Amino acid sequence: MTSQGSRVRVRIAPSPTGMFHVGSARTALFNWAFAQQRGGDFVLRIEDTDASRNRPEWTEGIIAALDWLGIRRGEYEGPFFQSANEERHAEAARRLLDGGLAYYCSCTREQVLARTGDPHRGYDGFCRDRGLAAAPGRALRFRVPDEGVTIVDDVVRGKVSFENATIGDFPIARGDGSVLFLLANVVDDIQMRISHVIRGEEHLPNAPKQQLMWTALGHLPPAWAHVPVIVNDKRQKLSKRRDKVALEDYRAEGYLAEAMRNYLMLLGWAPPGDREILPWPAMIAEFRLDQVISSPAFFDVRKLRAINGVYIRELPAAEFIARSQPWLAPPAAPWRPDAFRPEAFAQVAHLAQTRIGVMSEVTALVDFLFLDEPATDPQAWSRAAAMPGAREVLDAVARELATAEWEPAAIRAVVERAGDRLGLKLSQAQAPVRVAVTGRSAGLPLFESIWVLGRERTVERLRAALAAL
């Protein structure tokens, strides 16, 4: 029996059939952290044998998603492609057949059901001893021992026992000779000397089958670790048909890579001391695979957003400005490219930085600075226009700002005086002014916003609001 050696070697093996799932991202990070911690190797293998569903752009998407998370090409082995290993897969199938550990079967599902009468029961072993040869329509099945149990020693779940009688003889190759996922996966892991298979809980039922094949092919099986399923707020497994699961969607919305990486590491594991926000080197140092829990992990978007907000606020000012750029130009931004003024954004960037949970929200906070006219919220305008004294406040502020000293404190004083004359609190007096100038009832601090917008444009918008009244 051949051992894989003492060096830690882990892998992820996604299929290039869609965007990168946050569950796959979490599993990738667990593997990456474990390998980094142990001085081991991380392997990316693309399981591309389903030619009807594979697309090259999905492979590039996987690589780009890993790179965004900090698992950068050149720092890991691969990508390798499962399709390039088809000869080894076929050779392994022949070895199992020649060794009496596999046999050909001609049974259809309908025939098995007719014999057993139970749609939930596995294959009944009808062709086990018929000695059938290869032929179109005949699958190759692995011969599972009749008695006993197969024990999967799982780092996360402990020793999990599977009665061999319930596993049943399972197919490993199709009638055309092409090998199925279960065997191809084992052959690839053996060839790549994988020492630890860290993957999602949904693969646990495959583990006893694959462990039997590892042994049958003359190798000691790897260490298994099946990490918990990720669920939504209804405790349902995340589904791409129902939930937002693509890592790329979160990136496009403006989640920072370091925040997403931090949050994903918390889905099934937690550092000691009730801490949740850790720099990546600390995550690597403190991560313990044997401390990963087995119960489902809740993907809490509100918690992710809160963590992302912390990371945004911790960015140096210059870096925040740099990272805001994708949302300050078309198509994300609604203004003309030549209308954007970098110096104006720099003046309010520190104010926006403390008020957003995702980077994409910066656009709506600052659009009033770069649009010819503010993008007015109709409901906000209706409420402001209906406020007692709205017309008088707008008129007084417009007239006084035309000649007032132009700095935030002086602008505030103008609005305060207009409100005082009508017996209004500052919050009441500034409400119609804010909507007239920015188009919204909430946003950046008003007086700093007016100061950056400039006297001419501010007075123009106040007078336009008066005319609308």
Structure write-up:
The chain is mostly helical and 469 residues long. Among the domains are: 9-80 and 186-227, Rossmann fold; 88-173, Glutamyl-tRNA Synthetase, Domain 3 (Glutamyl-tRNA Synthetase, domain 3, Alpha-Beta Complex); 378-468, Arc Repressor Mutant, subunit A, CATH 1.10.10.350. It has helices at residues 22-38, 56-69, 86-98, 109-116, 164-167, 181-191, 207-216, 247-253, 257-265, 280-286, 301-313, 317-324, 342-353, 362-370, 378-385, 390-401, 408-421, 426-438, 446-453, 455-468; strands at 9-12, 41-46, 77-81, 102-105, 139-142, 149-154, 158-163, 171-173, 196-200, 223-227, 230-231, 297-298. Helix 1 links the parallel strand 1 and strand 2. The longest helix is centred in the first third of the chain and has 17 residues, at 22-38. It starts with 8 loop residues before the first strand and ends with a helix.
What does this entry show, briefly?
This protein is mainly alpha-helical and 469 residues long.
What name does CATH use for the topology of the domain at 9-80 and 186-227? Rossmann fold
Unreliable stretches covering 5 or more consecutive residues: none
> What's the architecture of the domain at 9-80 and 186-227 in CATH terms?
3-Layer(aba) Sandwich
Instruction: Give the DSSP E fraction (strand runs of 2 or more residues).
Output: 5-15%
